[in-house]
Amino acid sequence: MTDHDYRGVQVLLVDRDSNIRRLLRGILARMGMSAITEFATVQEAGPSLSGTLLDLVLVEADPPEGDGFRFIQALRHSQAATNPFAGVIATTWQPTQALMVRFAASGADDLLVKPFSAKQVHDRVANIVENRKPYVVTSEYVGPDRRKAPREGQQIPLVEVPNTLRQKALGQFDRSKVGESIAKGLADINDQKVVRHGFQVAFLVIFALPGLSQDPPDRMALEHLLRVAIPLEDLLRRLAATELRSQVETYAHALRLQLDKVRLQSHAGPEEVEALRRAAIGLAALTARRADMEALEQEVRVAVNSYRSRLDQIAQAKAAQAAPEKPAAEKAAEEAGPPD
What we know:
Organism: Aerophototrophica crusticola
Domain Response regulatory: 10-129
CATH superfamily of the largest domain: Response regulator
Keywords: Phosphoprotein
Order of helices and strands: EHEHEHEHEHEEEHHHHHHHH
CATH architecture of the largest domain: 3-Layer(aba) Sandwich
Pfam families: Response_reg
Region (Disordered): 318-340
Shape: globular
């Protein structure tokens, strides 16, 4: 492994346990890091994101005050953080399944389970230096690409972002260029967010349409349709005052109009359904700069069908867990089959 020089690395350390902070500070200091800022809570640490150019963040993820995952998400999605691409290691005492789901969705680079050894800390930092994954951007996620395979119907490009921890560790850091490289990374993320938000709006609408036609409308369909407002608003926030924004606003107005109708009527007739479909697919095609709207709609429907299959699998698994255990005699009779 290449020798790493961690002098000059800027570290943010967040943990409510002062003993853990002291232990981590000692381990990091022995690795050569001296510029370490520490806080007990993410609320106290928040302002530091827009100050020092951080290279490495270690943040507690455990409840009740361990809103570390929200902190990480805020960092990754931030337009104001000095370095939203800092290496991030989340720490926890309890790597439960629920916590692992939140970890995967947060944008963190790695997870460190307490109690830990100095070697485990060293290995995770070195992994960010040597093997950091490129970023992937979806409507709700910015961070390292952990997908084993892309989801059906979606071709999402990877984004290369600056890794200042690696640059400093390998003696490649150039202060005169870091601002430009971070700005480029943010611009690439923003461009992908625009595309992914457009796709997400179409996805939510196409998923909801069959249920909206029912009387009364399907509850899950309504919930998914009303979620359109979140990516739609962030999409508009990310667009500069250009012709593209003007065109997007036209589709956004049409979508809001139909959303208001559905809210008031609690029902969507054929005209509303078709208007929602046209506006959603039109918006997705516009943000992706694609003219092949039929092919794009097919991609959205493939993604929707895959999502429905996953929902069915989850429902079946929950039903199986909730089903009462059959008596042993009844099980044996079923396995034996009918008498001859």
